[in-house]
């Protein structure tokens, strides 16, 4: 019932929503879709009117730096060298007003609040993300994971208690709560012999399950991790939608297992827990289809975050090193086709059962965004009905987000927050984002320049 309430909130968009295409003749539908591509041209520099001069210059400077391949490709190394040379404080002083300010909302609630309110005014919905994550070899003790859980619970509270956004969402990384070593081991185990989903659900409920294949301490840690996830889900259900991030292929199956267990437990009447599907993976389509089947069989609602994927470099290197098949599509075009295919599948099922399925089209790619908007029209899916929304990252492709919001779509900006230290891996990934993201940024850069020139003219 609580999911249904969201369908009643969108009256203020009613007046400019066109009539459903089912009732309209084909020619009119065609004309409308021309109109749509015209309005979603993403060419309006006025999207940047709201930025201060300092913000314009900062964005221009950072995008300029991102256009040097040498800098971008060695970004991780450069940052760690800079950190050694400048020391922790000096490094922080260098990053804070620059890269950090471009991509991160801040460190404490006051700073975050400021950027959130600004965003709300622009019609964008913030989606908080605690960018704590771990890779292999970075494992920390149970205490640190408990601290991380407190940070996530704090994130649930902030997302819910502030009036920043209707239908609030947040992102969650499971490797902040469960050691990556265990996730890798689980992945190996369950690809040989899948665990029963009910077993995981029962462990979440507090039953001391003895998972086969794990030793005593691993079982203990797994049970603690599931308790932590359970606590977060309990705190957020009916309040904040929790979008679980996808990470590396050598742990994703484990992450999906616990995410599906959370869905089974908490998504009975609405999509409160979501999973992420990375379309750059060759198997992404079958993973999505499996999830659709599972949600139908087990009777839970499915929320999907559809992304292309952010760990390409590392995945490729690892596959090469281990001499196994590259899990990632051969070229960007294949990833693009995969994205289109999965998007289509989701929009199709949503048009049939909007109360059971939800998707966030998490991309900066203008073509993908236009394609989603066009299919929504064709299938008669509400722009702001809750089942479909869009997502971009803070500091990236604001022209896409602002245009979508202006057209009445639900748009979330993923907003990481935390210390320079905690957000560093995230920042490095942002700098390495390639290809059309950079083309998109090139365009954003042109639009930023246009806006800058306009202001200079005005001030003369
Ligand atoms: C709200 C939100 C949440 C996100 N959550 C996650 C998450 O949980 N997990 C995650 O991994 N990422 C996540 N991302 C990051 C997302 O994967 C990146 O935004 C994405 O990598 C950039 O893709 P794009 O569609 O915006 O841009 P595009 O420019 O259209 O595509 C770039 C992407 O295409 C793929 N690609 C590029 N070159 C090639 C090639 N040669 N061969 C094959 N594929 C190629 C890569 O995935 C690359 O990142 C999230 C993004 C957003 C906006
Ligand atoms: C990417 O996919 C879209 C469909 O979503 C298609 O229209 C477009 O032509 C593709 N782009 C490229 C460069 O292949
Ligand atoms: C996108 O995917 C759908 C379904 O797989 C397909 O019918 C359509 O032709 C694709 N569009 C493009 C432009 O590739
Ligand atoms: C980004 O582009 C550079 C050069 O064009 C390339 O060497 C690098 O592998 C690319 N990285 C990603 C993540 O695509």
TrEMBL record:
GO terms for molecular function: FAD binding; proline dehydrogenase activity. The lineage of its organism: Eukaryota, Metazoa, Chordata, Craniata, Vertebrata. It comes from the Eukaryota. This is Proline dehydrogenase. Its EC number is 1.5.5.2. Its cofactor is FAD. Residues 133-439 form the Proline dehydrogenase domain. It catalyses: L-proline + a quinone = (S)-1-pyrroline-5-carboxylate + a quinol + H(+); trans-4-hydroxy-L-proline + a quinone = (3R,5S)-1-pyrroline-3-hydroxy-5-carboxylate + a quinol + H(+). Residues 17-30 have a biased composition (Low complexity). Residues 1-30 are annotated as: Disordered. InterPro entries: FAD-linked_oxidoreductase-like, Proline_DH_dom, Proline_oxidase. PANTHER family: HYDROXYPROLINE DEHYDROGENASE, PROLINE OXIDASE. One of its GO terms (cellular component) is mitochondrion. Pfam families: Pro_dh. Belongs to the proline oxidase family. Gene3D superfamilies: 3.20.20.220. One of its GO terms (biological process) is L-proline catabolic process to L-glutamate. Converts proline to delta-1-pyrroline-5-carboxylate. Keywords: FAD, Flavoprotein, Oxidoreductase, Proline metabolism. Residues 1-16 have a biased composition (Basic residues).
């Amino acid at each position: 019932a609580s999911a249904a309430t969201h369908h009643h909130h969108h009256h203020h968009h009613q007046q400019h929503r066109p009539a459903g295409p089912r009732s309209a003749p084909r020619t009119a539908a065609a004309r409308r879709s021309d109109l749509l591509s015209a309005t979603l041209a993403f060419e309006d520099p006025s999207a940047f009117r709201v930025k201060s001069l300092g913000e314009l210059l900062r964005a221009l400077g950072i995008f300029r730096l991102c256009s040097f391949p040498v800098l971008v490709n060695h970004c991780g190394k450069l940052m760690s060298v800079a950190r050694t040379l400048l020391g922790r404080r000096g490094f922080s002083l260098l990053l804070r007003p620059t890269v950090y300010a471009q991509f991160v909302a801040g460190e404490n609630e006051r700073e975050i609040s400021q950027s959130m309110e600004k965003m709300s005014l622009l019609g964008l919905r913030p989606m908080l993300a605690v960018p704590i994550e771990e890779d292999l070899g970075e494992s920390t003790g149970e205490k640190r994971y408990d601290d991380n859980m407190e940070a996530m619970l704090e994130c649930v509270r902030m997302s819910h208690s502030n009036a920043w956004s209707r239908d609030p969402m947040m992102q969650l990384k499971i490797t902040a709560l469960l050691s990556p070593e265990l996730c890798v081991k689980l992945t190996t185990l369950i690809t040989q012999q899948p665990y029963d989903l009910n077993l995981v659900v029962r462990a979440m409920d507090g039953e001391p399950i003895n998972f086969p294949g794990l030793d005593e301490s691993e079982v203990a840690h797994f049970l603690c991790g599931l308790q932590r996830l359970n606590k977060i889900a309990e705190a957020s259900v009916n309040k904040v939608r929790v979008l679980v991030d996808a990470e590396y292929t050598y742990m994703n199956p484990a992450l999906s297992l616990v995410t599906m267990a959370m869905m089974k437990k908490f998504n009975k009447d609405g999509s409160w827990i979501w999973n992420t599907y990375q379309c750059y993976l060759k198997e992404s389509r079958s993973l999505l289809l499996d999830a659709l089947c599972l949600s139908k069989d087990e009777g839970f609602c499915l929320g999907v975050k559809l992304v292309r994927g952010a760990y390409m470099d590392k995945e490729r290197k690892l596959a090469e090193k281990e001499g196994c098949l590259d899990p990632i599509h051969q070229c960007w075009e294949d990833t693009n086709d995969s994205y289109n295919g999965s998007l289509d599948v989701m929009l199709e099922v949503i048009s049939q059962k909007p109360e059971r399925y939800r998707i966030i089209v998490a991309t900066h790619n203008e073509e993908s965004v236009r394609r989603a908007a066009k299919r929504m029209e064709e299938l008669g899916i509400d722009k702001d009905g809750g089942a479909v929304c869009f997502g971009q990252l803070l500091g990236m492709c604001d022209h896409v987000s602002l245009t979508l919001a202006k057209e009445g779509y639900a748009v979330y900006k993923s907003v990481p927050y935390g210390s320079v230290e905690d957000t560093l891996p995230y920042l490095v990934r942002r700098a390495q984002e390639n290809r059309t993201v950079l083309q998109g940024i090139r365009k954003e850069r042109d639009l930023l320049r246009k806006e800058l020139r306009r202001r200079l003219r005005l001030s003369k």
